[in-house]
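Session log. Operator J.P. requested a structure for one protein chain; no other inputs attached. Running the standard single-chain path with token output.
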Amino acid sequence: MEPAHTVGRVFSPLDEELALLPGTLAPRQQSHLVQLGSWMPFRHANRVLQELLGVYVSSETARRLCEEVGRQMEDKQTAEAQEPWKEATDGREKPSRLAMSADGAMVLLTGGEWAEVRTLAIGEVPSGPDDAEKVHVGHLSYFSRLTDAIHFTELAEVEMRRRRIVQAKEVCAVMDGADWLQTFVEIHRANAVRILDFPHAAEHLTKLLEALANAGHSFPPKMLDRCLHVLKHRGAGSLASMAGRLPESEAQQEDVREHLGYLRKRLSLMQYPTFRRAGWPIGSGMVESANKLVVEARLKGTGMRWRRTNVNPMLVLRNGVCNERWQETWQTASNQRRDRLTQRRHKRSAQRQEAKQEALKHVPVDPLPPQPPLAPLLPPDPPAMLAGTSRPSPHHPWKRGPACAPSRFAKR
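Structure written below.
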């Protein structure tokens, strides 16, 4: 007897029925491990999993699984961002007042390179706050990616659609003065109320006063505090008129010209008394806290260095847990993994069938030898007619009929 041929790895149909995932862990255990890995270093996540569930996995397994799940979710969101925009028809009420802000945070990569992770924060602004100094933006959600400004603007469409920025009645954009941020606002909500982040404006105003002081201009005590108070409560017009009275020799100094031109270009974004009366926030604290919560809390730990290809998968997981959408994130990533496994299985099956058909084409086919005539199972019936005549033979059916049978009374 010939030995049986070895077979390859296959996927049991029962695994599909039970909605299992590849690996030695059950789906729920994998979900716990990935969620822990999105909150803490992998070397701690596997230890916590063992203490809670009594299941041991290596830190390398935790890292590999987190990156795989995050990459599946990243591919899904990238595909969604490229889909054409559709008007929402779910009947939900349009958001009343939304605020959005975007900024970047630096992450250390392998090789000692620093890269900028861009983050978008979107939140709800209450209508008509009692105290303009205490505008609280709630129900925050985040979207983060390590990419350039153009691709980030395209990919952020996923969160923009989810928070219905286009359908909202009023939207404000509290940003710093970077040009790519103004392009970002122009693409996603051109009629948004654009506000220059007040701490950012205060930083440039401080540098302007320092440059003037270095150029020999003398100021009264606490000039900076007075300028900031005027900027917040009276607007940028008063400061612009004061700057217009500077001597030409001082205004043309390099540092003075740089910061003065920056502020003059953004006068419309610094109408802080108007913004405060309308109940809008004038600071980008929501995205500053997002940089710490989403990015730095997990990706800027002591001694951490990341491969560039692994940063975005971890950011996707961080967005899922910080947005309180972990179950949705896990379910989407799991469905993506199952779909890809099914596609691979069907592809391998088709390749095996093609290889089998191709192999059969090259198998030599020997011609079959002529088969001998088959011997009759029964002897042939005798002829019913006499040869060469039309007379019936003794074997003719008529001869065997009752009318042709010899009479028993006939002479013998």
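Operator note: The mean pLDDT is 84.
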